[in-house]
User: Fold these one by one.
Assistant:
Number 1:
Amino acid sequence: MIRLFVSLVATLFVLVPAAVQAQASAQAVQPPAFSSSRIIVETRGTGPDIIFIPGLGSTGAAWRSTADRLDDRYRVHLVTVRGFGETAIEDNVSGGLAGPAASEIERYIREQRIDRPALIGHSLGGQIALRVAADMGDRIGRVMVVDSSPFFPSLVDARATSAQVEPLARLGYQALLLFGDQALKSQVAAFGVDMGLAGDMVFQGLGLQGGDRRVLAQGLYEALTVDLRPRLSQITAPVTVVYGWTRDTEAPRNRLEGLYRYGFEGLPRTARFERIEGAQHQVMIEQPQRFLAAVQRFLS
């Protein structure tokens, strides 16, 4: 009996330090909690990482139905830009919007030790995803942009420049601050008409979940004026472009692929294009099953 007791005590002295060491090791590799005055990130699931970036006036909830179908096999990260929806504006009260948001997503990837995530961004979120991919190079595994362009006005005229569009964008910025997003779309509809399909894509992104007018106005201004085409050559990850499409040959969306091919031709490797029939700008909400199938092809 004494020998058995001694043996049990000896075993405890061997196992307890080992357990403590294992626990300490697990705690050591756990990344710190992420906090940002620019973005919010909701994370769930396990597996390869997918970072979802919503568009203008949307929160991470815009991706929830897609993420719900993936989080049993992937770890999904739903980004919200502060000031969209009901979130507090914090540091997005002034200065740029997409650039700081991209920088914070990059910090999130580094601090959380995320290895080559897939980025999926809609509209303005697609532009943010392109910024992150250009900045981080081979730290990014792949990129999907959804109804987005490196320069929205190029969907109207490939010769358009930021300087030419800036007066219209500034007027839209001021009108949004004065009237709000719903009034901007209804009372100042001429902006969207003047910009053709590009205007429709940018203006339709407003108001899905709304947000602080200051953030919406800044996002609108940047979506119309920022030209990311010079940065495409820095993106090493493969890029997939998903967009809403119609069989109606009279509709502008029927001709989107040619416009997109021209806009993305600066990529080192040719982008893959996926059209989602029956969808307009909010592709993932208007055609969730077809969009999910496109995402699964993208991830495989």
Number 2:
Amino acid sequence: MTSGNDTAVLRAAGRPVARYVTRPELPARLSPRPHLHPVTTLAGTAVTEHGPADHAHHLGVGVAVPDVEGFNFWGGRTYVRDQGPTELDNHGSQRHVTFQLRDPDGFVEELRWVAAGGELLRERRTVAATELTERAWALDLTFSLTNVTRSPLSIGSPATNGRPGAAYGGFFWRARKEAAAPEVFTAEAEGETAVHGRRADWLALAGSGWTLVFAGATERTRRDPWFVRTEEYPGVGSCLAHDERLPIPPGETVVRRIVTVVADGRLDRDAAAALVRKAVSL
């Protein structure tokens, strides 16, 4: 992995496949945070978007949470119960502290989640890129969030705050927007309505000449339902707070691991499943 002052380049099969921005210069209302963009296939096709017109706070691939004890680490407006999306001065930021390990194909990073002048969470983030085939590679991302305060914290979402179907927050991938909406499918279902808000071992998003296959790589991660958008915009996330808030007592840690296959071409179910099995077993 080569790096500059504020960016790092992730490589797979000897090729640059992702740029990691550690200290983005963004306004506070976008909840500045380290993120991956652009992410590309091995053939060089971009599969992320950054700051699109429809959602300026969507920043490629990363970890974003709209409600940590009332503070917004997602960006944009905050959903307030019985009031709706509301502009609030409650945005937090994720601050890069150090790389604890750096290799050509990945890194281990320490981050501080800060809001209102204080640190709420300390994160350890592990990111690795692995070649799977000549046309596919895997991005392996694990995040561990530790409550460093003396009080209980909890993670919420617009869904837990009263907005049905909006349980986003956690790992999130904003994919590239094309003329036609991408297809989305799991091993057993197809289409946004059929897969959104449901659990599945893996979920595929297929665009024009590319496919992303997302998989929870631990038993606990697989229990989180998927947040899926295709028509409004292309995006996939794994929900930390779907039905209820996720408590984090003082000193306790929440860990999730998502492995994403990044492939050239449009994969069918069998090909997607086979690549996920290979990626998760590495």
Number 3:
Amino acid sequence: MQVVTTQAGLGRIEDGAVALLDTAFPHVGAVLEQEGSLRCLESCAVRRRTSLDEATLIAPLGRPRAVWGVGLNYASKAARTGRALPEQPILYLAASSAVPEPGAQVVIPQAVTEPDYEGEIAVVVGRRLYQASESEVWPAIAGITAANDMTARDVMRATGTPALAKSYPGFTPLGPSLRTPDDLGDRDAIRVRTRVNGELLQDDTSAGMIFPVPDLLSRLSWFSALEPGDVVLTGTPAGTGQDRACFLADGDEIRVEVDGVLPLVTRVVRPA
């Protein structure tokens, strides 16, 4: 099942259209807080149907309580940068205020000189995970979506603090739809691609992760309880602007494609 939040309410994507559901939940995040999964939406009656082009999609989760990220979690990225594989995940929190509406323009602060994209697979927690085993992780995940974990590389270099380099308003775009894990063809090899102005620059699958999803969330859960609606960004493969010494410019369009969900399109603007 693939779900969206629209200005007219929650919907399921069916046959390329949006089936608007008869439910009082304002967004997917509210469903997870109360139900712990999206399964209740499978049986919701349909109020009416509309085309994807006519539907106004808004942030599917509302404002997440927590957005976790991980650095250097793809073997391809480590190989490109010449860095050794980490023995433990490099984890950080980004401000939830950095999550914009789908399709919103991201204004790059004038002080940021090296804005970069990072196409990623995001997983959304459905049921609380604390000190969880790997086998408990996928059953507790409500869905996946696309993410663009944007980074101010110059700020990262100057401060050494991921939270500061990634928390500018709009720097954590999340995809417009969520796909439930049981609807994925192969959840251990989910493909993620990133195109900038139409050029394919990142192309990998979750099989290339150093810490796969169950391992990553299990490790994280031994330090922090993951609550319904929390988002975990799972790392970016090789092909970022950092790898090419080519950073985002005014008017650039970034398109992140993750198996099973609607593409995430982000446009950046630099003030004059």
Number 4:
Amino acid sequence: MKQGLHDLTGAGLPWGAARPTTPRVPPQPRPSEPASAPRERAAGATGARGEHTHSETPIRVPRAAVQRSSVRGQILDALRTALVTGELEPGEVYSAPVLGERFGVSATPVREAMQQLALEGAVEVVPNRGFRVVRRGARELAELAEVRALLEVPVLLRLARTVPPARWAELLPLAEDTVRAAGSGCPAVYAESDRAFHRAVLSLAGNEQLVGIAEDLHRRSQWPLVGTQARRGRTALLADATEHLALLDALASGESAEAARLVGEHFGAGR
């Protein structure tokens, strides 16, 4: 389960500092040898002659950068969860320093994560204030559902004609996971399992670009509408998850018409 804002601890990852190096004096040429001899000896010891290894600087692992990326990824996951659950409310402005205090990290990884969410259309930049969560209405949700249907339905119908039943059976555990996630009543838990199921289905087409675009559209469609009354409850989540099982049955049996009807209803509900 992904952590929400209130679940994060104040402990950050350790940040390493580069160890200072002691200046080294290059070896002086011997009286009986040319000035280039020390370099040639070094090349012979560490590499083939002519590689000019004497001019290279040792590569140091950027520990701090790697750790910051890890922190940003954790923050991004937590912010996405908070968007799905409505903890980050549509229309509200959140500043990176304030959110950083809640996460127990500096404002930098929070700001970087928010900038990623801005690229995804979840938030918008408010100069000198922070980031405002975008207000979404029913029309936008319907448009997303239409685009997803136009993209995914033809692929699913083609897969229904070409993928053997045994491959569809392999996806049954993922469909069952969505039912269990829906039973938890947590929209963030269900959102993750829902995307995992759809991602696995589309992956059978062997088109990574398709999977990536569909994943982005799917994630956008999971953000709640304005107003708490628009959030989906446990009953709605269970109904959505049950459709996954029915869809798998239709695909495994090669019933293209039934699969088309089911997937059309699935997207038509804005899921």
